Amino acid sequence: GYQIAKDEFGAVDYQGGPWQVIKNGDHELIIKDVIADAFLQQILLRPKEYSVIATMNLNGDYISDALAAIVGGIGIAPGANINYQSGHAIFEATHGTAPKYAGQDKVNPGSVILSGAMMLEHLGWNEAKDLIHKGLTKSILSGKVTYDFERLMDNATLLSCSDFGREIVKNM
């Protein structure tokens, strides 16, 4: 990977190596390799040092679940697969279907709602995206949340999935 970065993109040694840096105007991309278990610790302790993570599928799954825990769990983390060359994209919840909760009206819809907001942003519909973020943020800050957040928050009000959705719309 480092040689490709040098040959194809003009990367140079970063802080004496072995890492590489690619500069483009005022921006730079630092290319590092890290052993997966060490990275899991680093990403939790120093998340601002990372903005793009390229990894294999299994490690990526572990890493994305650990990072989702920081913001409340996979029930709230959005997901996207974007092809920046073709512009095609898929936006989806980061969790599975949770069949044990089917028909119970209790799961947090935040992941799929935020995935929809990412889709709107991708389409350039920023006003709609901003309304969704406003509604979701205000709902969570007011403590009116689904069971996964309610159990983590002091003095929270437990809402069903559908009531949480209505609360988000009300707070837009």
Question: How would you characterize this protein structure?
Answer:
With 172 residues, the protein is α+β, with helices and mostly antiparallel strands. The protein has a domain at 75-172. Helix content is 44%, strand content 15%. It has seven helices and seven strands. Strands 1-2-3 form a three-stranded antiparallel beta sheet, with helices on one face. The chain has a two-stranded antiparallel ribbon with strand order 4-5. Helix 2 (36-45) runs parallel beside helix 3 (57-70), helix 4 (110-122) runs antiparallel to helix 5 (126-141) and helix 5 crosses helix 7. The chain is elongated and about 55 Å long. The chain starts with a helix and ends with a helix.
In short:
By secondary structure, the protein is α+β, with helices and mostly antiparallel strands. It has helices at 2-9, 36-45, 57-70, 110-122, 126-141, 147-150, 161-170, and strands spanning 12-13, 20-24, 27-31, 78-82, 89-93, 144-145, 157-158.
Regions with little confidence, pLDDT below 50 for 5+ residues: none
Estimate the strand proportion. Answer: 15-25%
- Main sheet properties: 3 strands, antiparallel
Q: What Rg, in angstroms, do the CA atoms define?
A: 19 Å
State the helix count.
7
Spatial strand sequence of the major β-sheet: 1-2-3
Class by helix and strand content?
alpha+beta
Question: Features of this protein?
Answer:
172 residues, alpha+beta, two-stranded antiparallel ribbon
